[in-house]
Amino acid sequence: MLRRRKMNAENEANADTALLSEKQSDVRKNGSKRVLTYYKKPIGARFAAFALRLILFAFIIYISIPFLFRFSPTFRRSLIFMNYINLQPFHNLSQPEMHYGLNCTQPFFIHANDVKLGAWHIFPKQRIHECANESRLAAEDFNDDRPVFLYFHGNGGTRGGRHRVGLYKVLAYSSLNAHVIAIDYRGYGDSSNVSPSADGLELDANAIYSWLSSKINVSRINVWGHSLGTAIAVRLAGKLLKESSPNSVILDAPFTNVAEAAFSYHLAVVYRWWPYFCWFFSEPLEQTAETAFDSLKLVGNIKSPLLILHSMDDITVPICLGQKLYQKALNASNSEVKMVVFREELNYGHKYIFKDKELPKIIEEFISKTN
Ligand SMILES: *[C@@H]1O[C@H](CO)[C@@H](O)[C@H](O)[C@H]1NC(C)=O
Ligand SMILES: *[C@@H]1O[C@H](CO)[C@@H](O)[C@H](O)[C@H]1NC(C)=O
Ligand SMILES: *[C@@H]1O[C@H](CO)[C@@H](O)[C@H](O)[C@H]1NC(C)=O
Ligand SMILES: *[C@@H]1O[C@H](CO)[C@@H](O)[C@H](O)[C@H]1NC(C)=O
Ligand SMILES: *[C@@H]1O[C@H](CO)[C@@H](O)[C@H](O)[C@H]1NC(C)=O
Questions:
Q1: Which CATH superfamily is domain 78-129+145-370 in?
Q2: Over the stretch 214-233, which tens digit does the pLDDT of each residue have?
């Protein structure tokens, strides 16, 4: 009897060897039963109980998410807009030069529809020397012949996000030598802390577009959207008259509509097999105004030439969505539509097309042809 107990204990001990230090193993070989009973068994048991609880907890979360998504608009908004995420909490958007390495950038605010929007004017490289002067450039100063890019960022973070600043630098400091206007929508960055919605973001886009087109001829404006920002750019440009449409619209990693984007999103893979996926995820996204982004429906109404950029290794917004939007635009639009695809080996993913050495040339050709 005693022998059997000892053997059981030893078997358990073998299973737990990884948890024991060498010294404890030695003690075990010497046949000390005390080590076996007081040391190992409780650790193994406690670990199993902990692991079980962890699995149960993860399972409850896994089951709850679809229900939260279906029934809580707040939860949906928080996943779609992610405006509360700020990876650079100690960066001050009022000091673009010091905190974001953007020389000679003017921070300013636009006030519209009871909302304050934080914005930057990044100057073309040919104007940077003017900043050495005490009389610094003003946000309204477009007094040259350079093109202007109006940038609409994607979800999460602020206009100061690294990949965003990376793109501004390409547009302003490469051969493109252009102005960039970047804004934060409501609820993002230093803009008013108002809950974001599709309609609200469209109002914000309209506000900055009106501000800009009151300063310069729209034939100098090029609208650039990235990710969720492509849907905002399409909502803006799709509703403008021909005479107030920008020189071009550039969509960087666009999607068709928010329901398809949710289905194709890489993390959705854990739910895609659920029989009621559409009921849980797609329907509430499509059928509530606050998240109703439908670029597929509006893209044909854009009167400006349209350029789509997409990387083949984009797992956040798969390229098939960009291609579908492109096909629809080709079919529906009367003006030029072009798509540029970046190969998988380049590893640009969802955010890093700005690193492409050819990009300034691609953009320059596209926006100047349209003049
Ligand atoms: C950011 O900078 C501005 C202007 O330099 C300053 O007024 C403001 O207090 C700063 N904000 C924070 C949170 O440090
Ligand atoms: C920006 O300023 C830094 C430091 O003053 C300088 O090294 C850099 O060359 C400047 N960049 C441009 C594009 O002028
Ligand atoms: C600074 O600006 C003034 C007025 O615009 C100009 O006369 C002067 O030459 C500028 N100085 C430099 C160093 O650019
Ligand atoms: C804007 O520019 C276009 C083409 O460059 C020109 O035909 C048009 O008259 C300009 N509009 C205004 C209001 O200056
Ligand atoms: C484009 O138009 C053709 C013919 O009108 C149609 O067969 C095709 O399905 C359309 N494609 C898209 C993506 O709308």
A1: Alpha/Beta hydrolase fold, catalytic domain (3.40.50.1820)
A2: 999 999 999 999 999 999 99
